[in-house]
Design a protein that fits this description.
Structural class: alpha+beta
Largest sheet: 3 strands, mixed
Strand order of the largest sheet: 3-5-4
Shape: elongated
Low-confidence stretches: none
Number of strands: 5
Radius of gyration: 20 Å
Length: about 140
C-alpha cells in the first residue's frame, strides 16, 4: 500500500509505503478485485512484472460489484458485550435485536443497489480463519477476566 498526501498547491508527497495488504482487503475481493491473485499474475516469478499479464488483466477488467457489505462476527459480539456492560436493561431489548437482525439479513435495497452482506471472517468454504480468531478472542477474554 502506498499513501500520498496532496497539499493545497497540488503537490503530492509520499506519506508511507506498507509492504502488506490493507485490513479491508476481503471487501475488495468480495467486490470483484482479488488483489493478491492479480499480484501473482503480474509477478509470476516474483522478480519482474509480466507486461503481457498486465495488459491481459486490464483488457479483462470487470467493474466492481456495488452493494457489498461485510459484517465482522466477533466485532458484533464485542459491541453487544460492551453495550451490555454499560446498560444491561436497554441492551438486551435494543442492541441484541438490532445486531441479530443485521447479522442474519443478507440483502437489502439501497438507492437502487442490491446490498449483499457477507461475514468477513467466517466463510463456510474455509472456517479455519474464524476458528483461529475465535480461539484468540476467547483466550483474550479469559486473560482479562
Amino acid at each position: 500500500m502506498v499513501e500520498f498526501k496532496q497539499n493545497e498547491g497540488g503537490d503530492s508527497y509520499l506519506m508511507e509505503i506498507n509492504p502488506r495488504f490493507w485490513g479491508s482487503l476481503q471487501l475488495a475481493i468480495d467486490a470483484g478485485r482479488d488483489f493478491p491473485a492479480l499480484l501473482l499474475q503480474i509477478f509470476p516469478s516474483g522478480a519482474e512484472a509480466d507486461r503481457e499479464a498486465i495488459d491481459s488483466i486490464r483488457a479483462s477488467e470487470q467493474p466492481f460489484a456495488h452493494g457489498c457489505r461485510l459484517r465482522w462476527t466477533l466485532g458484533c459480539l464485542d459491541h453487544f458485550l460492551i453495550r451490555l456492560k454499560q446498560d444491561p436493561g436497554s441492551t438486551l431489548g435494543d442492541t441484541l435485536l438490532r445486531n441479530a437482525l443485521h447479522f442474519f439479513v443478507r440483502s437489502g435495497d439501497t438507492v437502487g443497489v442490491k446490498v449483499r452482506t457477507k461475514l468477513e471472517v467466517l466463510r463456510m468454504e474455509d472456517p479455519r480463519p474464524f476458528l483461529v480468531e475465535l480461539k484468540q478472542y476467547v483466550l483474550q477474554i479469559l486473560k482479562i477476566a
